[in-house]
Amino acid sequence: MFTWYVARKLFQHTDDVKRVSKPAIRIATFGVAIGVAIMLISVSIVLAFQKEIRNKVVGFGSHIQVINYDSQSSEQYKPIVFNEETFSLLDAVPGANSVSPYCIKPGMLKTENAFKGVIFKGVGSRYDYSFFRKNLVDGEIVPFQDTVTSNKLVISQALSKQMNLSVGSPVYAYFFEDKVKARKFTVSAIYCTNLTDFDNTLVFTDVSCVQKILGFDSYQFSGAEVKLSDFSLLDEANAYIINNVNKKQDPYGAYYTSMTIFEMYPQIFSWLQLLDLDVWVILILMICVAGFTMISGLLIIILERTNFIGIMKALGASNSRMRHIFLYFSSFIVLKGLVIGNVLALALVYIQQHWQVIHLNPTVYYVDAVPVYINWWYYLIINLATLLICLLALIIPSYLISNIHPAKSIRFE
């Protein structure tokens, strides 16, 4: 194509080092590169942060919880039966990775020098321990049994520091009902997720131990967690539970109901969604910066090439063809900026992924280093959108060429 060939020759022309357009081209290229790099890095950080926090919340609370309907309007969990029939229904949930019954009981941990109000969560053999093994600091995660009480306790690193506990330390627990119930536990493992809202309050032990403290029968629990193999299956899995489990009665007359992770922790997910707004602001600002630098660069290039435009028009080139030449010229600048920006962004993301150069305060941000995650689809969309918007923004300035007359411009210096 003639216009593309001429534009490429102009772009590659480097003989005249005195041209004013050269620094303008460099600034335009630099503006596109920095804008794209910032957009890609911002998206990588926000996506990774949302994924990290979401996975931690799911690690504590699973994707869906099935509970007693009356528990929704009560300060304490009401008992609900989970037997072979109920488990067969929940195991058939689309994408179900594990189905685990649990019991919840508030209590107090006490040592000689400290005490702390916590929530005891009793779990059994069906529980998925992979999340806590991944975040294990000390000790060993040994799966709790359904009917055997080991009196072992898994606590967070935050609690261990507050109460000066370590693996093997004995600790007393007190539960308050009509009368005070006391139990002696031994710390068997210490985990750290940096999700302070959970780390500071949640400890794990045998489900049978908490069942006895609550006075539940062997098939009665506070609820059951359904953990899925993929977060994208949440809506389908929830619809299945609503249709097949919810509003059914257990042998004691209690009704089943379910709650998704969004309904259990709306404040956390609302906060994560607000981050999307921040990303959109960054994207819009960076695209505007790239667009304005390209517009100013194109105007400088057109004004400097007035003599060339006049000669081309005198030789028969139409205004349309001349606009196409300079739009192609601009596209080469944008593409060069995109390449530099992508290389810069990927290099910085790679460095952060492998060496975690930038650290954060985990008590504020819930992670100890800036998380990054590469989503190639988002990267592709950002690159295409930047290229398209920059070229669209250049269409109107390119019409300046129509006002250049061959007779006057050929004498223009």
Notes on the protein architecture:
The chain is an alpha+beta fold and 413 residues long. It has 15 helices and twelve strands. Strands 1, 3, 4, 5, 6, 7, 8, 9, 11 and 12 form a ten-stranded mixed β-sheet that branches. Helix 1 (2-12) crosses helix 12. The protein is elongated. The relative contact order is 0.19. The model has no long low-confidence stretch (mean pLDDT 90).
Radius of gyration, Cα only, in angstroms? 32 Å
Mean pLDDT: 90
Helical proportion, percent range: 40-55%
Q: State which percent range the strand residues make up.
A: 15-25%
Report, as a whole number of angstroms, the end-to-end distance: 29 Å
Tell me the domain tally: 2
What are the segments in which pLDDT stays under 50 over at least 5 consecutive residues? none
Class per helix and strand makeup:
alpha+beta
SSE arrangement, N to C: HHEEHEEHEEHEEHEHEEHEHHHHHHH
Count of β-strands: 12
Task: Looking at this protein, list some descriptive labels.
two-stranded antiparallel ribbon, 15 helices, ten-stranded mixed beta sheet, alpha+beta, 413 residues
Can you summarize this structure?
This protein is of the alpha+beta class and 413 residues long.
Give the arrangement of secondary structure elements:
Blueprint: H1 2-12, H2 21-61, E1 64-68, E2 80-81, H3 84-91, E3 96-110, E4 115-123, H4 130-134, E5 136-139, E6 152-156, H5 157-162, E7 170-176, E8 180-191, H6 196-199, E9 202-206, H7 207-214, E10 220-221, E11 223-228, H8 234-244, E12 256-260, H9 261-264, H10 266-304, H11 306-314, H12 319-355, H13 362-365, H14 376-398, H15 406-409
Parallel strand pairs: 4-9, 6-8
Antiparallel strand pairs: 1-11, 1-12, 2-10, 3-4, 3-7, 3-11, 5-8, 7-8
Helix pairs in contact: 1-12, 2-10, 2-12, 2-14, 10-14, 12-14
